[in-house]
From TrEMBL:
Lineage: Eukaryota, Metazoa, Chordata, Craniata, Vertebrata
One GO cellular component, as annotated: nucleus
Organism expressing this protein natively: Hemibagrus wyckioides
Protein name per UniProt: Uncharacterized protein
Per-repeat ranges for HEAT: 12-50, 89-127, 166-204, 205-243, 244-282, 283-320, 326-364, 365-403, 404-442, 482-520, 521-559, 560-589
Keyword Repeat recorded: yes
Family note: Belongs to the phosphatase 2A regulatory subunit A family.
Amino acid sequence: MAGAEGDDSLYPIAVLIDELRNEDVQLRLNSIKKLSTIALALGVERTRTELLPFLTDTIYDEDEVLLALAEQLGNFTMLVGGPEYVHCLLPPLESLATVEETVVRDKAVESLRKISQEHSPVDLEVHFEPLVKRLASGDWFTSRTSACGLFSVCYPRVSSTVKAEIRQYFRTLCSDDTPMVRRAAASKLGEFAKVLELDYVKSDIIPLFTALASDEQDSVRLLAVEACVSIATLLPQEDLEGLVMPTLRQAAEDKSWRVRYMVADKFSELQKAVGPEITKNDLVPAFQSLLKDCEAEVRAAAANKVKEFCENLPEDSRENIIMNHVLPCVKELVSDTNQHVKSALASVIMGLSTILGKDNTVEHLLPLFLAQLKDECPEVRLNIISNLDCVNEVIGIRQLSQSLLPAIVELAEDAKWRVRLAIIEYMPLLAGQLGVEFFDEKLNSLCMAWLVDHVYAIREAATCNLMKLVEKFGAEWAQNTIVPKVLGMANDPNYLHRMTTLFCINALCEACGEEITTKHMLPIVLKMSNDQVANVRFNVAKCLQKIGPVVDSNSLQTEVKPVLEKLATDQDMDVKYFAQEAISVLALA
């Protein structure tokens, strides 16, 4: 027995070893995910002396298992005895940082960055920094790419001699023969620059930035553009023109569209980093050429930044720059051949009205909004409609209704049903922006017309739209404007329109409340139970089931119950079925 007890302490590691060697990947994965439990059972010493060496030796598994292991080890500090022993976690993580699968390496680097913070400055130099050097000078590109992510975490906490070595290693990796390594170095350039002393930013980082920004691989050059934002924020204003701007100008005109795209995508951040003077002299022309780029993706990325760019312009020259330099390009983009470009522009163009003010909006922007409202691409139209409120704030409802409303009405009656559907879906938004009086005067009749549209999807959306309008404007408004018109359709010769009445009642009963439902809607539904068309009758049963919980209990027993009982004996199978279901759900049996 005593022997068995002694074996108990070995049991967890034995199970782990068995499971880690199991052919079933899922079992191996489960075992890795339970590592912390196993480490707790073993205690800190055995975790250090048995578990970690075992794990280090078994790093030749499926990527999924290795990924889980890399993640687990990042949270292992306390399980090996705290910060004093954290360096014990480095060997397995170092191995994981050299594997072929990128996601595993990235996770290993993430865990190494995490545990680097738990090393004392001495341990960092004795254990962590040599690991970084080994990775940086590894034979395989995989280890060298991983090293790029570790320089910035150890640099601030080591001696000046070691700092010099780290800078040298980073320089070497920036000119590595393998594009993947240069790419990794370029992606960490901005991060590394942030931890360097300013003198070294100028002497080391700027030459590296210039070299990477003119690398033969566009994937490296575009990452250098990303680093440009960080570097520009670190340098004093007077150094920017000489050290950063020539490279940035070159990137904005790069032969690869992906590099130009990155410049366009980061434009607002670059603008904030370089300040107003350089923006006026350098970035305005660069922005113009990006808006006119031959590649649609670049134009779309630049179009997306139009509002932000204009907002961040220096106040004294903002209007002048927009009117003379930005707006002419924007006018061209409104009729661009690519729908992504037009859509990107439509999502931000309305925001220009608050920047330019009422007169400029009416004179210059409204014609553009109108053109976009009539665009054949639905996304463009919807981006305009969904941003109407900011124009409304600037020019007022009267001006808006005179100019844009006819276009909206035209779309609401468009021959293509998908266009009509798109407008319906935006009607509650429009109603909220324009107010109840304006809505009743201009748009109410449209909403009612959709209820008798020949396309079912439109009738269905129109019903849903009414419910949202009632939620917005209230039950009293519904009783005065919507309900009478809906109930009037109950006598329509077309059975589809009669059914729409029932669908509307289903949608409106809760929003309208007990009184309106019992007093006005219920009598109509009960009367329709005698309809000649079976489809209408079974929808009456479904409707009664829906409004049952809303009407008062007296009406439920005296009016609803007899009608449902009558429908439950109907000759039509469907009518019978839905009537019986309603009786059961409403507990009227």
